[in-house]
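This section describes the prediction task in plain terms. A model, or a person checking by hand, is given the sequence of a single protein chain and must write out its three-dimensional structure as a string of tokens. No templates, partner chains or ligands are provided. The sample shown here is typical of the held-out split.
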Amino acid sequence: MKTNLFSEFRKDEGGGILAFYLVMFITMMIGGGMAIDFIRHEIKREAMQDALDRGVLAAAGNAKAASATSTAEIAAAEAAAIATVRSYIEVSGFNPDAHGVTVTPTITPFSQRVDADADFSVDTFFLSLTGIDTLAGVAAAGATVSVSKIELSLIVDISGSMGGTKIENLRTAATTFVTDMLDGDRSDFTSISLVPFSGQTSATPEMMTSYNYSRWHNFSSCVDFDGSDYTSTTLSTLTPLAQTQHFAPEWISDADSDWCPRSDISIVPYSNSIVDLSAAIGNLRATGMTAGQVGMKWGITLLDESSQPLVTSLITQNEIDPVFAGRPAAADDDETLKFAIMMTDGDNTPQYNVKSDMYLTYEVILDANKDVGESPNYHAPENVIADNGDDFDDWELSTGQRTAGYWDANPPNSNYVPWSFSHLFVRVNPTTENTRMQDICTAAKDSGIVIFTIGYDVSVGSTAYNQMRSCASSIGHFYPVETTDLSAAFASIQQAIQKLKLVN
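The expected answer:
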């Protein structure tokens, strides 16, 4: 009997199942408890990480750090950055000393970087059953607030159609723009080149000493670019550049309406002076035709790093602030932003350049030793008339029959060679000009230059409208505005640029 009872007990498996479930229950309890320990660890890590993130961002964005330049100022800014991060740790309920908080600030006049790290631990409940009494961890954070250097070309239309209210609005809007861009300490890292254009764009004599430039007269310093010049953002210092001759349409009696604006309405390169730029803007006058592609070429070239020798030369000549040494920056310079802003109120008009073989033959050039303001002699000498009778004797103007003798007796203002003498000029049609305009815009955008354009009182769908829209970096960078909205457009562009300056 006893043997049978023992045998039956041995065969009964009910107790084994209970034991199995008991083991599983204990295992799940320990596993769940371990998960709770890990969750507590993660909660503390997130709290510490959040405190570090907020602390380094606040420290890096400290306004005092942004203006630190001297050794003492930088040391003070670094101390302030450390104190800022530690205060954020304390506010979050942590003791910076107990958690080994380390703050490493790197302050320069143009950027503030703050790195910080901390350690922490969590006492365990359930993991201690496995011999793990604590869970340790490390949190780290870093933030950079950099005040980017800005290189900007302000390219503005001063053609005849900009007369009256328009040129007055331009003066007001552009003056406010450069003032806002250079206000306070911004002038230390912002350069603005003012590039006015009409039928041409005049550089300064000082600028042109950096180029292989053949000077024939001193009235202005325009360049007769060819098509290949517009496919590149550079302007070679070695390739010969032809000076634009001093001429104007024969029917204009205003001596200020030269094809190439005179030197007092020329480019203002690499300026950080509100006073100088405002004076130059106030001197802008509406005159002549429209060659936006030339203005854009100069504006973009002044942003290209190939113009560094030009900057060096202008600094040597005391023409620009030495703070701009080494500029323009390379296209891939992370600390520099490049912008071109172009404003026009109309289509490009035909471009006229004096034929190269006419420069000396007909004395349409001003003697190089004549000073600005002296009247050049554009009267053809008798032997030239005799040798080229067909050219001179058959001069027929759109305004009537006029011979060489007429011009000898009635020189138009003693300053001009009549432009309707077709044998003297090479004419570039607007279609070609527009192509060149888009070529230089594309080259600029490909090099990383951000282009804003303003179509000032231009009709939707017009050539000028489409040109400005296509040239801009995006549709959002194009501002078609009415006459009264020019200041608002410049203000919006200024705000957009300022937002791009701070990078967290």
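For orientation: Residues 2-145 form one domain.
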